[in-house]
Amino acid sequence: MKIKIGKTYIYISKCRMKPRNQFDDLRRNKQNKLTRKKIRIYEKNDGCCELCRLRFPLSELQLHHIKPVHLYPNLISEESNLRLLCAECHVKVHKISAEIADDMIFNNVKGLSNNKKI
To answer: Is 90 exceeded by the pLDDT of residue 61?
Structure first.
């Protein structure tokens, strides 16, 4: 479609100028799927954080993956692996998870070093 504004012509096209690559489509599909899951969980929980049970608007709640995505990429959009948390609780959960992991590593290393000292 061609529109004339003064002496200038503006061309408007319905087709994309640059085709998206496959990675962009894959990322966009995963993000859309997670957004739909977030809305579904939000409605199921009546807009409450699953940890503190306080009510928040959808935009202030975050999805938490119980099993980490980097270890279980196939569970990225499984509802059984998702929890809806407020930002404060989400930070607490990750802080606790990191502390537990550090304690486990420390205890294992400590146990190994005690076994070597005879």
So the answer is: yes
